[in-house]
Design a protein that fits this description.
Its EC number is 3.1.26.5. It catalyses: Endonucleolytic cleavage of RNA, removing 5'-extranucleotides from tRNA precursor. By secondary structure, the chain is of the alpha+beta class. The chain has a single domain, classed as Ribosomal Protein S5, domain 2. It has three helices and four strands; from the N terminus they run αβββαβα. A hairpin with a 2-residue loop joins strand 1 and strand 2. Helix 2 crosses helix 3. The longest helix is centred in the C-terminal third of the chain and has 19 residues.
């Protein structure tokens, strides 16, 4: 799996996002939360979106920084997500804290979050 995050992997469908938050499951590793749902109407195996709450970071520049960090940690560690070839998932990666973690801390949390997801999804 290449270390890329192409446009085709980005979660943009409003319908899929609604399904994600209404019927999806989640895994957490403070301060990150991964909401996921198995979907059938997409061409890619994974579709991923990121979100940082305006509640915790009032300034757009701060939110954009953490969204950039989340996208980068996803891009570098998506190979850790082990799913079957017939399953397709939609993900939303959320940063849910006022704490300003460093890039290295977010990277470590992302890795453990993806490992936790893989263990949960392959039950």
């Amino acid at each position: 799996m290449p270390f890329t995050y192409p446009k085709s992997e980005k979660l943009k469908s409003r319908k899929t996002i609604d399904v994600l938050f209404s019927k999806g499951k989640s895994v957490s590793k403070y301060p990150l939360r991964l909401v996921y749902a198995e979907v059938t109407d997409q061409d890619e195996v994974l579709k991923t979106g990121v979100s940082v709450s305006k509640r915790y970071f009032k300034k757009a520049v701060d939110r954009n920084y953490f969204k950039r960090v989340l996208r980068e940690t996803y891009r570098l560690n998506k190979h850790l997500i082990e799913i079957g070839p017939e399953k397709k998932y939609a993900f939303m990666l959320l940063y849910q804290s006022k704490d300003r973690l460093t890039y290295e801390e977010v990277l470590a949390k992302t890795i453990s979050l993806f490992e936790k997801f893989s263990a949960e999804a392959n039950k």
